[in-house]
Structures
1.
Amino acid sequence: MGTNGSTMLEPLRQGPPPIDPADASSSASCALPPRYEAVRGARTFTSRTLAAWDLSERFDDVALVVSELVTNALRHAMPADAPHGQDHPVRLHLMRWTSRLVCAVRDPSQDSPVASEAEDSAECGRGLFLVDSFSDSWGWHPLAGQTTGKVVWALFRLPGTSGCGHTDD
């Protein structure tokens, strides 16, 4: 888990998730303002999207991971001198294939995410540990081209699928 490479997520290196139906059966995206209230908006967006995809039973795990990824982007990836005119520097993408769901958060920082060694009683510093615990795998990719920043993603296997032998994996 926590690998830095995946051919399945190669399109994320170029920015937004693939739109071609051959790549993903469904995708949804939302821009998030650089305020901590955006975490609640990301959870609401995730809830509505999963309900529309008939995946509400996955909400608890996915919403926890989305919350952690968005919080990390807002806390660690926003430059201190970022202009206030940049309204939506963080973007949440949800992509669904037959056998998997990917949530990805794009942010303006090129720094790799770092899992900290939080003590057992710590109330913060456990974000990537939670992402690793509640998703099937996670990783990150720097953005290519003119867009700067990175995408941090988490993959979830969907119920009733083994993830092996499917043409959409």
2.
Amino acid sequence: MNWLLVVGGAMVGAPLRYLTDRAVQARHDSVFPWGTFAVNVTGCLILGLLTGAATHLQLLLGTGLCGALTTYSTFSYETLRLAETGARRQAAVNVAATVVAGLGAAFAGAALARM
């Protein structure tokens, strides 16, 4: 029955990722993938909160929701696309900012959950 929790979370996370990505990207007139950046950092914050709280909702919200909400493959593709189109600086910023902000969000979420 654990798989139902994962499926339930993914059913919410996947459309939420798509809609959030489109909404964020529509507000920015740049080639930088702000939508993917936003969903990945948000997912890191949620996972940090779940980890810090040691909640039993890990399968539903962690694996299901965050697994479908965040996207390493799109992050990789968009970074490669930036580099291939000559936006190498923005590609490097995307990698650095995603790693730093994602880890920061995860640590912040864990700290918030422990408070």
3.
Amino acid sequence: MHGEADGERDETEAQRIDRNWIELLQELRIVQTGGQVLTGFLLVLPFQDRFAEIGGGARALYLAVLSLALVSTVLLLAPVMIHRAVFRSHRKDRVLRLSATLARIGLAILSIALVGLVALVFPLVLGTAWGLAAAAVMAAFVAVMLFVVPARVRRHAATNPYAAK
């Protein structure tokens, strides 16, 4: 069954699912690396001499940021783990839908971890006021990148018949 369900593409439903799966995996490869580097950085922090100097609030923030980074790592790895578990079960459509959801949640949690990381590091370097300001700027930037930019792209694509070409 050929159709134009995905813009101007002439592909079967199975081909569309395969293409979307490959695109999702490519995206995950990029973000997994960044998330794993962040997690690795966070894991070595307690072993640094200056870590002993931070107070209880900063330690709690550190543990929260580390936890978010670890959760995001698992969520971003989950699509591959799920695919392996149901490989050849002819359920790639379900795997794709679930994996796309897990990727969105993982990206959102990783973004929150990045805001937390700014809130952790900037006060140590520049002081509390600068730390709060930097965290607020990072939170705003994350919100724009996660919500505003995608909404504008979707809106532009819906109103521009040549956007898919």
4.
Amino acid sequence: MFKEFKAFIARGNVLDLAVAVIIGAAFGKIVTSLTDDVIMPVIGKIFGGLDFSSYFVALGKVPPGLAGSSDYAALKKAGVPLFGYGAFVTAAVNFLIVAFIIFLIVRAVNRLMPKAPEVIAEPVEPTDVTLLREIRDELRRR
């Protein structure tokens, strides 16, 4: 069993996948920083707020110590039910950025890869027709 596991791990696909996961995690942090630190503050400024990710609506009673607080993380930690639409918008923008960048990468790779020559396949005769043709030819010879 150990040999099978070693062969499985040594295959190129598994190693490629491991590298992709590690690079993807690092890329995710870059995109998160781009979204949180560059894009969302601009969008927040357009919509009249500085931190768009902290937009929320409290759906439950706020504890007396946090009354009037606009700290999303503190209210969430205190167990207040929140409708965090700002956090959702931030995550949606984050997803769109990642999806668009992946689209650009795949498109660039597809353009760089040589296209396989188109092979025009000759029509393949069904086996029953071939068999009938052989029978016909054999009957003619007799």
